[in-house]
Amino acid sequence: MSAPHLNAELQHYQSRPLLSNRADGNYNMSPMQKAIGQTYQSTGHLAKLLPSGTVLSFQLLAPSLAKQGHCGDMNRIMTGGLVVFCALSCFVLSFTDSFRDVEGKVRYGFATFKGLWVIDGGAPLEPLAAAEYRMRFLDFVHAIVSAMIFVAIALFDQNVVSCFNPVPSEDTKQLLTALPVVIGVIGSMLFVSFPTTRHSIGSTLSSSAVPVEINQL
């Protein structure tokens, strides 16, 4: 397949929403289009591993802050700030956790090196129970990977890309096409290889979770 034809198909998929349903009309796609589509869809599924509120906020705010890709200096500052803030949010929320107390209420906390610091204003956990939620090396791995995956999502957003680089060169186009896919593949491998048991803020805690004793003050 010629380079112009491949670039045209890549641009066709980049222009489509990241999390859209691509099942419709799949039978009309060429093998190359199907391969590209599956790669983009896989990265879209990775977005589900990130805090839902962070991804939703980015998708809602990015088009208006980036002015549909027609940015002035202030728009670039605000768009860049949004990307940095959301990436930091993904990083920090990886250290949060939730549990169900004996009354069935979902409680939230932040992992520290000593244990879980309850941040919802309720009673703290018993010391032994809190120690089970202490910060571990795996949390840093997931935090870094989460931030990387969010950057990949931001690079798929044409409003953001056009805001910072309205007329990219061919080399830049190829980089912007390949880099998010590489990040997605690496992130997927790390998430599968090093799964976490945390239920961060923004994720769903199973109703069958074992209740945890709290410290009655």
TrEMBL record:
<dbReference type="InterPro" id="IPR007770">
    <property type="entry name" value="DMP"/>
</dbReference>
<feature type="transmembrane region" description="Helical">
    <location>
        <begin position="77"/>
        <end position="96"/>
    </location>
</feature>
<keyword id="KW-1133">Transmembrane helix</keyword>
<feature type="transmembrane region" description="Helical">
    <location>
        <begin position="137"/>
        <end position="156"/>
    </location>
</feature>
<keyword id="KW-0472">Membrane</keyword>
<dbReference type="GO" id="GO:0010256">
    <property type="term" value="P:endomembrane system organization"/>
</dbReference>
<keyword id="KW-0812">Transmembrane</keyword>
<comment type="similarity">
    <text>Belongs to the plant DMP1 protein family.</text>
</comment>
<protein>
    <recommendedName>
        <fullName>DUF679 domain-containing protein</fullName>
    </recommendedName>
</protein>
<dbReference type="GO" id="GO:0016020">
    <property type="term" value="C:membrane"/>
</dbReference>
<dbReference type="Pfam" id="PF05078">
    <property type="entry name" value="DUF679"/>
</dbReference>
<feature type="transmembrane region" description="Helical">
    <location>
        <begin position="176"/>
        <end position="194"/>
    </location>
</feature>
<dbReference type="GO" id="GO:0005737">
    <property type="term" value="C:cytoplasm"/>
</dbReference>
